[in-house]
Known about the structure:
Layout: H1 4-15, E1 21-22, E2 38-43, E3 48-52, E4 58-59, H2 64-82, H3 98-102, H4 113-120, H5 128-143, H6 151-160, H7 162-173, H8 181-192, E5 195-196, H9 198-209, H10 224-237, H11 243-249, E6 254-256, E7 261-266, E8 270-275, E9 278-279, H12 286-299
Antiparallel strand pairs: 1-9, 2-3, 2-8, 4-5, 6-7, 7-8
This protein binds glutamine.
Amino acid sequence: VIEIATLERLHTRFASLDDGEVATYIPELSKANARHFGVSVCDLEGTARQVGDVQVPFTVQSISKPFVYGLALEAHGREAVHARVGVEPSGDAFNSIIELERHSHRPYNPMVNAGAIAVSALVPGASSEERFSRVLEAFSGYAGRTLDVDHSVYQSERSTGHRNLAIAHLLRHFGVISGELDDAVDRYFKQCSVQATAHDLSLFAATLANGGVNPRTGRRMVSREHVRCVLSLMFTCGMYDSAGEWAFTVGLPAKSGVSGGLIVVIPGKLGMATYSPRLDRHGHSVRGVAFFRALAAERDLSLF
Length: 304
Ligand code: GLN
């Protein structure tokens, strides 16, 4: 158990940390309120301890990646998914395109954009609409409430996301994705634009901590076997080119998003999420990283 007093103390300590910048490359994200800071920790009974701006909605961005990866695993199994995407940390930035051209022409892992776009192409369904509703339905199942897309953020990324479109073109060129290019990359933009709160995301994380069953609703979202795949890749690749440092200092599976969300899982124990929009150079929330580093050190949370 992590007491509310601990969360409050660390929240106060890091609320004054103003390093980093709000993401602007997706124009709509630059409107975020940089003062917002929320912390939510959810146990396996579904009870959340929370401090600060935990009800502020923001787009999940890359925090969508492990959950869509889980969906693809459930639909096709591990072999089929990993015929298209690897399991190695890239050591490059999340949006790198170089790795695809340079090496096997197969994306490194499902947590970087190239891998996530390849995985989005694997969401099953008869039409684009049906495939995206599977994603939204799954995310809503993790949150335990109905979630929806922030259409302005989606449009904003759709009209400026040339690098991701280029990645999708290369994936199509190398045969990693087939069919309509727009189908995969558009779903990727949409999944990134689903709105949730820090409170919701602590339930996403708690569902993974709980072996794939949402602790509040009792609904199984992903098999235990696939939770292991998801958490191992969050551990090794979830923090991109600072995954090594994160593993060394925090020692827990995590995933960040460029709108400022960060989820952390203590398997078998807790799901945690923070929201604060200012980012470091890797694209992780500055306050979120500082908060979890301090918490992990203080409470000896590392898996090792
Ligand atoms: N939608 C964002 C992108 O593709 C997500 C990146 C992130 O959160 N790291 O650039």
